[in-house]
């Protein structure tokens, strides 16, 4: 793939496809949706509507950070509050695939409402090749796959889809992103799953449980980012573990730390980290999140495990 030719071709294609019908880009701030938004902005200019859906499942401060990075690029981003809709959709669900499907339904339901309000016809989204392959192979339901598994977005949600990156893998998207001039703050962001922290809370997804994993994620990212893993994050298990508090037995939360190196997310190995670093993350999580009694480091490569736990 020649990056410059790819960019020019996609800009022309987006222009031609959208015409006067108007388009919306759903930005999450990850490399894929950011690259896609920038391509669409170059094609359509300020007629492109860019929204960030705050589903209540993002990392700390993420919506505002993404908004300000794009403001610097001259692209206004509207933050749409939809936390209640997402928590309602996920309430009572524990099965990973059911949670993924409920997330997808809430995600496109919200987008469909926004698209009607804005009076546009197209949704531009940053689906990449790995998302399609893994959903088709039945590995997992990626939140952003519709047409490829026989869901007609127009009939189900009232919009047509444009997916400029669907033939590319992660490292190729990064190459395009660099060529387009996306800032390092986006390029360096670790991949974050579409269903956000809901993918990192095993068992029921409630605002309280998401808050625990959000705080643990922040600590893991702060301590492990200097080692530049492909991805590093925390997962909250659904079981509890015994600990001690002031000589009393306490049945508390269990956090797993996952840090992996990978090129394209199709395979991955656990990062080899200094013992002191793992000890420091553990101590911070135990101290800063009082409900946690145990912390463990995950050692399984992909395959056989996947990177995320659901
Ligand atoms: P797995 O867990 O399948 O993840 O090894 C591979 C890569 O994809 C990310 N991931 C997702 N990304 N929607 C996304 O946009 C999703 O539903 C989703 N699930 C996993 C994961 O973080 C990793 O980088």
How would you characterize the largest beta sheet? 5 strands, parallel
Write down the overall geometry.
globular
Give the strand tally. 9
SSE string: HEHEHEHHEHHEHHHEEEHE
**Through-space gap between termini:** 32 Å
Structural class: alpha/beta
Per DSSP, the total helix count is 11
List the uncertain runs: none
Mean pLDDT: 94
CATH architecture of the largest domain: 3-Layer(aba) Sandwich
Q: Could you please say which CATH topology of the largest domain applies here?
A: Rossmann fold
Strand content: 15-25%
Bound molecules: xanthosine-5'-monophosphate
Strand neighbour order, sheet with most strands: 3-2-1-4-5
**How many structural domains?**
2
- The CATH class name of the largest domain reads Alpha Beta
The rounded Rg comes to 20 Å
């Amino acid at each position: 793939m020649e990056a410059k030719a790819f960019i020019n071709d996609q800009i022309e294609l987006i222009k031609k496809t959208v015409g006067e019908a108007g388009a919306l880009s759903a930005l999450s701030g990850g490399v894929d949706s950011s690259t896609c938004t920038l391509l669409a902005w170059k094609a359509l200019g300020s007629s492109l509507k860019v929204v960030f859906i705050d589903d209540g499942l993002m990392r700390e401060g993420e919506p505002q950070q993404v908004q300000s990075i794009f403001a610097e690029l001259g692209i206004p981003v509207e933050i749409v509050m939809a936390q209640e809709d997402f928590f309602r959709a996920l309430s009572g669900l524990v099965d990973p695939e059911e949670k993924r499907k409920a997330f997808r339904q809430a995600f496109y339901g919200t987008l469909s409402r926004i698209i009607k309000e804005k009076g546009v016809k197209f949704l531009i989204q940053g689906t990449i090749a790995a998302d399609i392959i893994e959903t088709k192979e039945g590995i997992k339901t990626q939140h952003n796959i519709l047409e490829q598994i026989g869901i007609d977005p127009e009939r189900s949600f009232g919009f047509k889809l444009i997916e400029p990156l669907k033939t590319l893998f992660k490292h190729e998207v990064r190459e395009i992103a660099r060529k387009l001039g996306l800032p390092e703050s986006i390029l360096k962001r670790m991949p974050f799953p579409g269903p956000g922290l809901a993918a990192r809370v095993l068992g029921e997804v409630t605002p309280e449980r998401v808050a625990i994993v959000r705080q643990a994620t922040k600590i893991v990212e702060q301590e492990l980012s200097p080692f530049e893993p492909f991805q590093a994050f925390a997962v909250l298990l659904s079981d509890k573990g015994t600990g001690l508090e002031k000589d009393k037995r306490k049945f508390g939360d269990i956090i797993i730390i996952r840090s992996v190196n990978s090129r394209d997310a199709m395979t991955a190995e656990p990062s080899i980290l200094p013992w002191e670093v793992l000890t420091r993350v553990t101590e911070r999580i135990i101290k800063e999140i009082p409900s946690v009694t145990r912390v463990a480091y995950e050692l399984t490569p992909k395959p056989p495990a996947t990177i995320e736990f659901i």
